[in-house]
Amino acid sequence: MPEAEVTIVAEKFDETTSHGAGGLWKPYTLGGTPPDLVNRWGQDTFDHYLALYQSPEAPQAGTILTSAYQLFPEPVPDPEWAAIVPHFRHLTDRERAAYDPEGTHTHGWFYTTIITEGRLYLAWLTKRLAAAGGHLVAQRVGSLDELAGFDVVVNCSGLGAKELFGDDSMYPVRGHVIRVRAPWVRHYVNGATGTDKDCYIIPNTDTVVLGGTLGKGDFDTTPRDEDRRGILERAYQVVPSLRAAEFVSEWVGLRPGRPSVRLELEQVALKQQQPGGSSGKSSLPVVHNYGHGGAGLTLAWGCAADAVQLVQQALAQR
Ligand SMILES: Cc1cc2nc3c(=O)[nH]c(=O)nc-3n(C[C@H](O)[C@H](O)[C@H](O)COP(=O)(O)OP(=O)(O)OC[C@H]3O[C@@H](n4cnc5c(N)ncnc54)[C@H](O)[C@@H]3O)c2cc1C
């Protein structure tokens, strides 16, 4: 929308959930979001990252192309998104053995995927926004009434939507990750997929992300000794050379869990006229775009494209 004037209002512009994420392209903890939507949003996003990766912008945007090795204790059906990632196939016995020294996994997937490091990608997006004349306002929003001066609001408040829009269906999915320095580790490896003792290894630009935990309903963002020990032990089993890696940092983030991603236009009633407010409006069009669970970076671009269409629809209805 080249003619739009865009202002991003956010309490935090750093250290958000998106900054801490591993950045792997893979649909994950998305509740019951319909697979056809996940695939459409996911494909658009994958294509966007791939184009970025193939451009001179890649180092600034934090995109890395990598091989993925995903192991399972028992055979599982292929994922709905198999056709989106290049080279999807089953692991051979020999490939599986490389990451399964104890031979406890009998099935596995190989594919090529993209990692987009949130910290770098958000900085890159922010620069693009500034270059296009966009504004940033650091402000905690207590009520939609505070935004009554805008024509349309796009709600990308993540888990914050629980309080801001009273969405009681939202819940945190607590995730603990550790960053280490291990430049020799360049593959994404995942064992025990989707359990609360998940084991994943995601290379980023300067660090490697080791995870993780899946604490549904847990709001505690303090790292726990037991989780840290478990993450490291499981990672060492899969890639023993990680024992030589230097510990860099650890972080606990809350994935914005929801029964389904919410991407829709709603006319939301304002509670009252703000003091000094000039709008005289009783409601405001809000394009909701939140609840992306463990896959915000995986679906971001595709969801944003739909959100833009809904903004245009809202403006046309004025
Ligand atoms: C450990 C971990 C690993 C992950 N790994 C991956 C991965 O590998 N791949 C992937 O695709 N996804 C991953 N995710 C998931 C991903 O991080 C989230 O889906 C994504 O960050 C959600 O983005 P968001 O913009 O909706 O929310 P956020 O990044 O949380 O941003 C919300 C913004 O809204 C602002 N806000 C909220 N409420 C208010 C308010 N009342 N007033 C003003 N501002 C407000 C916040 O300050 C913030 O700026 C991971 C998550 C975790 C926790």
From TrEMBL:
One of its GO terms (biological process) is D-amino acid catabolic process. One of its GO terms (molecular function) is D-amino-acid oxidase activity. Its cofactor is FAD. GO terms for cellular component: cytoplasm. InterPro entries: D-amino_acid_oxidase_CS, DAO, FAD-dep_OxRdtase. FAD binds at residues 17-18, 141, 293-298. SUPFAM superfamilies: FAD-linked reductases, C-terminal domain (SSF54373), Nucleotide-binding domain (SSF51971). Transmembrane segments: none annotated. It comes from the Eukaryota. Residues 5-309 form the FAD dependent oxidoreductase domain. D-dopa binds at residues 200, 255, 294. Keywords: FAD, Flavoprotein, Oxidoreductase. Belongs to the DAMOX/DASOX family. This is FAD dependent oxidoreductase domain-containing protein. The lineage of its organism: Eukaryota, Viridiplantae, Chlorophyta, core chlorophytes, Trebouxiophyceae.
